[in-house]
Specification:
mainly alpha, elongated
Amino acid sequence: MKRLFFFLVVASIVACAPVSEKPDRISEMEIKLTRLEENQKNLKENIDRTNERIDRLTELISELRLELERIKLKLLTGVSEHENLPKESSEVVRVEPKKLPPHEELKPSKEEGKKVEEEKPEEDAETAYKKAIELYSVKKLYEARDAFLDFIRRFPENKYTDNAFFWIGKIYQELGDPKRAEEIYTSLAQKCEKGKLPDCNKLPDAYYQLMRISLDRGDVAKANEYYSILIERFPTSDAAVRAREQKVLMGE
């Protein structure tokens, strides 16, 4: 009996020993867990602060890019309060060749010289315009925009210049910038109304797009002004037909 009693006492002591150690281990684990949670919280705060800095830098970069585009547009398209830029800023500067001693056999005739001067820019303009249109057709919008801007810079009074203005406006609409598109269309309309462009076949389309932009903005009065211009001055144009359809869809 003594041996059995001793055995039971020892067994009970051994069994109870790990149980007494469990609270200490739980406390240690709770402390470690608390520290991990604090570290995780600090890490999250650091990440949030870093993300805020990145977001701010991204905003600053976007603002700088927009400002650069705005300056470029002012210089190349005249969209600003100073619309009448100096002639030199919008035309290719021509450098007169240095006069050589008179050798009649080396001089082209006046007719030939005039022909070369008139035909070469026209050929260059058509090629440049077609390249810009091709970029737009495959939706390389930024490249197309730059190509049209370059076209306007090189050929400010070409038969395709009004088209270049129009397509720049369309590109900005597709890029989600209706305000800049409106500025471009307005600039095109002003130049056409003042007779600064030799061909204005895109003027009705520009007025139609201005009407649509005004409607999207909720400025019905302004939209009606553009609608009246289309109906009164360009009644048979495709733009006028679309404007009438728009009125029907609006229930007016």
